[in-house]
Amino acid sequence: MKGVLNMKKTTVLLVLLLIFCMTASALAEGGFVFRDAAQKPAEEIDTSIHAGTGLKLYNRRDEKAERQWFENNTVCLRGLYLRDIAPGLTSLWYNIVPTDLTKQGRQTYDLIASNLYFVGKAYVDISGDQLTVSYDYYESEIAYPISECAALFTSMDELTAEYLDNPVPNFTVGRAVSISGDLNGSETALLFMLNRMTYTNPYDAVNHLLTRYWPNHRYYTKSQAAMRELLLKIK
Fold this sequence. Notes:
Number of helices: 4
Strand content: 25-35%
Number of strands: 12
């Protein structure tokens, strides 16, 4: 009996010794040790959202993301795809946003470049009978603006395939329009924006990345559902 116990003890000691030797060898070669962020598994590499900007920090210290340039790309509102709600009007990824004109104060909408990245915000400010549309991009380093086009419609009939082939603005960004006069006293309008700009991602030496837009994410589908309810009020 004692002989069996001694054999078991010897076997355990040999296994422990083997594990110790393997671990020591791995440590000597740098294994099992994350020496910097680049060696960590992808899920352990930190990314952080910069407050109020939507920008992510790509945090690898010895490896930078390849810089990409997007030349003369479209910038649209994050809203409802026209190709979904009005098939046949366009095959492009243009968006409209049904806007509540009875709501005083500011309404804020995301701007999406190339149907891929968040690049700024658009604002609808309503004070009494006056409505003003404005927008800004997150950082001047991101965007090299080329053109802007903003339009308000009070009926889906105003949005035609011919118009979408060559969109033109019907009001001036930053200048107030009359809801009772210019928008026929409507309670709901369709806001359309189609800007163009050149931008880069990441946009600086610190490797700031633009936040990717995933239109099917449940957070965005929830807001799209609210927009569809407003769309029903459009004649």
